[in-house]
């Protein structure tokens, strides 16, 4: 009997609500819903058309931002107009939205910080979708990967070993970010060590000839060999060549292999590290070559 009474009361409440909505008001609500749905499709068509025509002059990240901005701007206009057509007072909604925004701001300060950081990242344009970046996070952890999305709260990366990473925008603002693909060419730096009795001029000539014979190394800027330090038993050299960004990984790997083969061909010895062994019995220092 109790269940029947509850159902009867609910039916009465529902009937009163239906009766309170006049036929004209019901038509206005239906029209407002249809108007909002039409606005959604119009906003999508306009944003996609912009991306396919004028947006073709922009990069991938800029097209994404403009397409989203145009879509939400047009759709919000239609949504506001549909609410007014349905008879709702916008001042009530705006007041409630303001109170809700303040409450959410206090409850989610981290999200608000990421949101503000995201606006700075988008406005600054230090990297875009498709760029490869490297950043150092907390505790020295290094992340390197291709940017696949720049959103208001986070940046999404795909690493070289195909791992999907989400990085909060606040960390990107605080940490140094290296854009590895911003420019079309990139330098390959190879650190080398030779013995003190080697002829530096001969080594320099061999390295330059090795670079000139490799097709992926650019003629300009020229390859360079610099002496960076004289150590206790070795001479430290920095060998640098330039290649196109798209060839960087392959050129870096093959160039080191060619340098090794050239040293063997021209009888240039690479120094071997020395290990100091302490003998407890004789208390003598012995050196063994590894």
Account of the 3D structure:
With 290 residues, the protein is of the alpha+beta class. 50% of the residues lie in helices and 23% in strands. The strands form 3 sheets. A 5-stranded antiparallel β-sheet has the order 4-3-2-1-5. A hairpin with a 3-residue loop joins β2 (142-150) and β3 (154-159). α2 packs antiparallel against α3 and α7 packs across α8 (248-265). The longest helix has 30 residues, at 23-52. The chain is elongated and about 100 Å long. Mean pLDDT is 78; it is low at 282-290.
Shape estimate:
elongated
Number of helices: 8
User: Largest beta sheet, briefly?
Assistant: 5 strands, antiparallel
- How do the strands of the widest beta sheet line up side by side? 4-3-2-1-5
Spans of at least 5 consecutive residues with low confidence: 282-290
Helix content: 40-55%
Task: Return the string of H and E elements.
Answer: HHHHHEEEEHEEHEEHEE
Please state the CA-atom Rg, rounded to the nearest Å.
33 Å
**Could you tell me how far the N terminus lies from the C terminus, measured between alpha carbons in angstroms?**
93 Å
What is the arithmetic mean of pLDDT? 78
Helix-and-strand structural type: alpha+beta
Number of β-strand runs = 10
How much of the sequence lies in strands comes to 15-25%
Write the layout of secondary structure elements.
Blueprint: H1 2-20, H2 23-52, H3 60-85, H4 90-107, H5 109-124, E1 132-136, E2 142-150, E3 154-159, E4 164-168, H6 169-174, E5 177-179, E6 185-195, H7 200-212, E7 224-230, E8 234-244, H8 248-265, E9 274-278, E10 285-289
Antiparallel strand pairs: 1-2, 1-5, 2-3, 3-4, 6-8, 7-8, 9-10
Helix pairs in contact: 2-3, 7-8
């Amino acid at each position: 009997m109790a269940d029947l009474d509850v159902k009867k009361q609910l039916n009465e409440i529902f009937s009163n609500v239906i009766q309170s909505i006049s036929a004209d008001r019901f038509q206005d609500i239906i029209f407002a819903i249809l108007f909002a749905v039409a606005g959604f499709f119009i906003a999508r068509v306009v944003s996609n058309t912009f991306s396919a025509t004028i947006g073709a002059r922009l990069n991938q990240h800029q097209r994404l931002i403009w397409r989203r901005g145009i879509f939400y701007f047009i759709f919000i206009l239609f949504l506001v107009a549909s609410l007014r057509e349905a008879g709702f007072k916008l001042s009530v909604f705006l007041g409630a939205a303001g109170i809700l925004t303040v409450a959410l701001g206090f409850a989610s300060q981290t999200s608000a910080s990421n949101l503000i950081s995201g606006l700075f990242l988008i406005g600054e344009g230090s990297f875009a979708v498709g760029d490869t970046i490297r950043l150092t996070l907390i505790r020295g952890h290094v992340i390197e990967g291709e940017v696949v999305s720049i959103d208001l709260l986070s940046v999404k990366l795909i690493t070289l070993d195909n791992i999907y990473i989400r990085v909060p925008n606040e960390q990107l603002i605080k940490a140094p970010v290296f854009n590895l693909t911003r420019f079309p060419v990139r330098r390959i730096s190879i650190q080398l060590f030779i013995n003190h009795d080697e002829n530096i001029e001969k080594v320099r000539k061999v390295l330059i000839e090795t670079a000139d014979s490799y097709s992926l190394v650019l003629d300009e800027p020229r390859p360079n060999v610099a002496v960076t330090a004289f150590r206790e038993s070795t001479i430290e050299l920095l060998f640098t060549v330039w290649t196109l960004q798209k060839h960087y990984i392959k050129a870096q790997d093959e160039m080191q292999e060619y340098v090794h083969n050239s040293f063997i061909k021209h009888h240039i010895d690479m120094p071997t590290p020395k290990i100091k062994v302490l003998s407890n019995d004789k208390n003598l220092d012995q050196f063994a070559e590894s």
